[in-house]
Design a protein that fits this description.
This protein is of the alpha/beta class. It has helices at residues 2-52, 56-69, 113-126, 142-150, 158-165; strands at residues 73-77, 88-91, 97-103, 110-111, 131-136, 139-140, 154-156. The longest helix is centred in the N-terminal third of the chain and has 51 residues, at 2-52.
Amino acid sequence: MVTVLVVVLAAMALGVVALRLAAYGRREARAERARLAEEARRAARRSLDAVLAMDDRQFEEFVAGLCRRDGCTQVRRVGGAGDLGADVTGRLPDGRRLVVQCKRYAKHRTVGSRDLQTFNGTARAEHGADVPVYVATCVFTRPAREFAARHRLCLIDINLLGFWNSGTPLTSFLELDISRSGTHRRLRPDPE
């Protein structure tokens, strides 16, 4: 009887130890996931320093390269005088026509709805875009985001650009509800 009692108590003690170790492991795993997510956010912001230092043509080539990396085909940089709002064109992996407008602005600026209205008209009417994408190194105003949501424009602001640059595929951004995602608050300029 004493032996059975000792065995039961030992099994209970081992069970308690196992439960505590499992709980500790779950806490450690959560902490590690949070640490990795924060590290990814920091890396995305750091990687944008080089992007912000590019000139307009380099930025357009950079965006074209991201499109190619994500499986787009027939990608061409067509930006320049008279481009009618198309800096990069191509085909998404599913075959839809992609037209991208690139704006390399100072990060404390914003892109308003008037710019998007113009782009929406030329991207679709002049370039036959199935998927118009506007990429900017700043944020979009609230009216711009609302316009984009109504007209199915994909907006990639400075925040999403960091994630795109860090490996998030372009197709992940195409279905975002841009009227509710991100922020429209201006960023502060860097100190000089």
